[in-house]
Structure formats: structure tokens, C-alpha cells
Amino acid sequence: MMQNTAINVVANYTMTKYLISIVGPTAIGKTALSIKLAQHFNTDIISADSRQFYKEMHIGTAAPSTEELAAAKHHFIHHKSIQDNYSVGAFERDALQKLETLFKSKQTIIMVGGSGLYVDAVTKGLDEFPDVDKSIREQLNSALQTKGLKHLQNQLKALDTKAFNTMAIDNPHRVIRALEICKGSGKPYSSFLNQGKTERNFNTITVGLTAERAIIYNRINQRVDVMMENGLLNEVRALMPYQSLNALNTVGYKELFNYLNGKWTLDFAISEIKKHTRRFAKRQLTWFKKNESTLWFDYETDMSNILKEMEQKIASHKA
User: Fold this and answer.
1) Which residues span the domain enclosing 174?
2) Which residues are 203's β-sheet partners?
3) Tens of pLDDT along 237-252?
4) Contacts of 210 (CB under 8 A, 6+ apart)
5) Tens-place pLDDT, residues 44-69
6) Are 225 and 271 contained in the same domain?
7) Boundary (domain end) residue, out of 162, 192, 222
8) Which residues have a Cβ under 8 Å from the Cβ of 247 and sit 6 or more positions away?
9) Based on the domain organization, do 99 and 163 belong to the same domain?
């Protein structure tokens, strides 16, 4: 009954298209829920996980398995190479084009991913920033090479604590982007966020999965152990010639590069992967909690209960 009811609620509003966006911290179960919902609504899945775009990165990004990919039609999984320059703006354009095509035959589309900026790019549009002198970025890139990421992170913390606490500070591209806006405009990077969003021709229902922090951290630790058992070290070893690429300067890869380069022991590298992933999960929750319209559920909530609240949300759009 629940399935028929939910579909009927959506079908009753034939002029309205719905994007169901599933968010939450890493390792919480977003992929599993997205597949269940895609099967329930007989629809496709848009991935908004920026690390899963790259075809060379399988294990370390927790990309959907072969079985999961076969269970529902996925888009934006392994469609790029680590050598491609693929920005959030390009993803916004490509994802909107794909949604336009899919909505011609489907009422509801599922989107899933833990990359908050990429999720927001699709659902709200990107923020507009002032033009700044290109020499600022050149100086910051030089500082990254000579003084390291930590130096830039400290600068960002001093200039924009809000951005420092909410963005992916382990991503040098993001840190440099925020710093160049701070330095070039004289205003905090975060002050330009969420100022005015583009209207979309579809409604978004955001579903968030969460759990007590101890449970999230335990799931992360277990996932990292499973990744190592599944061959993450060999995956990273094969990518050693490309370790300087921005796509690989990410958790799970950079730590094992340090091990393979003789800087760390393997046990320490694994512990650092777990620590950095836990920090990333904390930032994810901070980002996603900003959306007050999100329907939050414990990660063990039965899908029938999630569908029930989604029905109410859909009905409220036309109340």
C-alpha cells in the first residue's frame, strides 16, 4: 500500500517534477537508500559525490558496486578521468541537462551524494563571487608548494572562521578558492554564500540520514578496514605516477601515498585515513544541517516511514 500511495501522490501533480536528494555523512547508508527509492519510483539515480566521478578511483571512494549499479540506473559514476579538469560548475551544467532529459519521461529522480557543494549546485545553483586579481591565486598556489596546505588553512581560519569550520579544508583547491576571495574582496568568503539562488523547474525533497556520532565514527572505521581488505593499497599503488593530481589529493589516497613514499608506517596511514574521514563526516553534517527543510532520519529507519513523511512533504507543496 505504501508504494502505491507514494507514487499516486507524486502522479497527482503531473505538472511538478521532484528531485529526491539524499544526504548525510559518509558511510551512513545513502547508497543503499537511494537504490531502494529508485526501485520504488522506477527511476534513475544522479550521483553528486565528486570523488566517485573518477573511473580510476573505485575502492577508496566507496563507489557503488557492480551489483548496486545494476540494481538502478546511475549517472555521473566513473564518467571522468583523474586527469580531467572537472569543476563544480561543469557538474551543475551537466547534471541539469541530464535532469531535463530524465524528467521528460520520469516524474521523480533520485540524487545522492555527500559532496555538499555539488548537491547545492544542482538544487539551488552556485553562489556568485566577485572577480579578483589572478595574481592572488598564483601567490596562493606558490605558497601551497613552498609552505604547505597547513599554512593556507591557518590563513583561512584567521580570515574566515565560518568557512574554515564548514568547508573541506583538506582540499587545497577549495582552500585556495576561499582565500583568493577573502584577499581579493576584503570580505569573508562565507559572506558570499547563499545570497540568492537560482529558481529550478523542479521541487527538491531532501532526505538526510544520520546517527549518534559514536555510531557514525564506528561505521567509518569499519569501512576503512573493509577498503583495505578489498585492495585499497594496491589501487593507490597503481596511481602513484599521478599522485600530484588534484583529484588524488583526497582522504584515503594521500595518506597511503605517504606510506608508499616511505614517510609513514602503514598502520599510521590507516589510522590517519580513519581520523580524516571522521573529520570529513563532521563537516558534512555541519554543511547539511544548514538546510532547515531537510527530513532527517536515523540510518536504521524503515523506508516505509521515510516514504510516509515524503508524502506529507509532497502534499504540502500543493496545500
Assistant:
1) 134-192
2) 18
3) 999 999 999 899 999 9
4) 24, 25, 28, 216, 285, 296, 297, 298, 299
5) 999 999 999 999 999 999 999 999 99
6) yes
7) 192
8) 51, 54, 57, 82
9) no
SS3 21: strand
Rounded Cα distance between 9 and 205, Å, is: 14
**Residues annotated as binding site for ATP?**
24-31
pTM (predicted TM-score):
0.82
One-letter amino acid at 29 equals G
Q: Is the same domain home to 39 and 150?
A: no
Domain end: 144, 172, 192, which one?
Answer: 192
Under the phi-then-psi rule, with left for phi > 0, alpha for psi from -120 to 50, and beta for the rest, what region is 102?
alpha
Binding site members for substrate: 26-31
Model confidence pLDDT, tens digit, residues 151-172 = 999 999 999 998 898 877 787 8
Indicate the annotated binding residues.
Answer: 24-31
Please say whether the beta carbons of 132 and 183 come within 8 A: yes
